[in-house]
Amino acid sequence: MKFSATARSVQGSSASRRLRRAGRVPAIVYGGTAAPLNIELDHNEIYHAVRKEEFHASILTMEVDGGKGEQVLLRSVQWHPYKQQVLHVDFQRVDAGQALHTKVPLHFINAEVSPAVKLSGAIISHIMNEVEVVCLPANLPQFIEVDLADMLAGGSVHANDLKLPLGVTLGLHGTNPVVAAAVVKGGAAAADEAAAGEQPAA
Asked: Which CATH number is associated with domain 2-93?
């Protein structure tokens, strides 16, 4: 995906407020051997871009002042507390030979055909919606599929059960969290949740 940016020479909170009133968004690009670069973006363009899942988990091509495209990764987006307004965006430069540590979304498939749902009427709970991966930029997946076709009632899928693309590893630092679980309505898990919500008698 591509996006356009303009180099920003004026910094500071008052300058940022002026930019936002003019329909622009202050942003920064950091990382690599070059110095951090202050840029500004068109608000409408970046607002629609950051609402797309692939913009968060893809290597992006940034063109500054119409120049040669540079490879970057979206790192953070600051939103207004109550308005649909992007306040600031951080990007990180990408080195083709250096591994990335970033999060990618999980796409859950085949829950409706699993024995847990078809035979037991279980509800599939998505415990995690994204997972941290380590890979070279060229191997970065836009998402990882979680196939729930074989899930049984009361069963679960852990991070280590995920089928990862070639060249991609999990960045979980020795942990193996639950990604999804099949909970039967009225079962033990539901009872435990109800018990946890009860208040002790005075």
From this structure: 2.40.240.10
